[in-house]
Design a protein that fits this description.
alpha/beta, 12 strands, binds glutamine
Length: 194
């Protein structure tokens, strides 16, 4: 198993550290040639979605990654990564990959707090969650599985090959969410092998 981490901007190194800790091989996508190789899953980190979206086009990486996602390769988006995957952004005209059937609100979780930490359930297990100017998910398609809700707002969901969190699991020492993603990649590889 080989997982790519989009490394254009934001908190990508922390994702790599967790993957390494879990014994999963990973590499960075910084330019188009990195995106063209074979890999089994993609992590889109937190940071600033507008900047990442712009760089994806400027570096001509957008189409390559979008077609891999559309072909069913597992993708995990945290915070800005979630915004990049959303089909609709309620308070922004932009749309980036737009491959996941969710509507999100940017910079809108809670009371506009810059940053806060809490412990809440993800897939029925208590884990620490770090929110940094986070989005939340306003609505999901019926095919989506809701994995975490904080203050009545959806903050983690899965739909087929997509996993998204409003919070930053890579900024804690808990590896639950990454393990969940790795099991999605294993599922994908098993199906591929038939
Ligand atoms: N507010 C950022 C955005 O809209 C996301 C914040 C984050 O990734 N921590 O892109």
């Amino acid at each position: 198993m080989r997982i790519a981490v989009l490394a254009l901007q934001g908190a990508f190194i922390e994702h790599e550290q967790i993957l390494e800790e879990l014994g999963v091989e990973c590499f960075e996508i910084r330019q188009k040639k990195d995106a063209l190789v074979d890999f089994d899953g993609l992590i889109i980190p937190g940071g600033e979605s507008t900047t990442q979206g712009k760089l994806l086009h400027e570096l001509d990486i957008y189409d390559v990654l979008k077609s891999k996602i559309e072909a069913g390769m597992p993708v995990f988006g945290t915070c800005a990564g979630l915004i990049l995957l959303a089909e609709k952004i309620a308070n922004d005209d932009r749309k980036h990959f737009g491959t996941m059937k969710i509507e999100v609100v940017r910079n809108a979780y809670g009371r506009q707090l810059g940053s806060f930490d809490i412990c809440e359930k993800f897939d029925n297990k208590d884990i620490p969650m770090v929110f940094i100017r986070a989005p939340y998910i306003k609505s999901v398609d019926s095919s989506c599985e809701i994995l975490a809700v904080v203050d009545g707002k959806i903050v983690a969901a899965r739909d087929k090959n997509h996993l998204v969190t409003s919070f930053h699991p890579e900024l804690t020492s808990d590896t639950t969410v990454h393990e969940y993603f790795i099991s999605m990649v294993n599922e994908y590889l098993n199906n591929k092998r038939g």
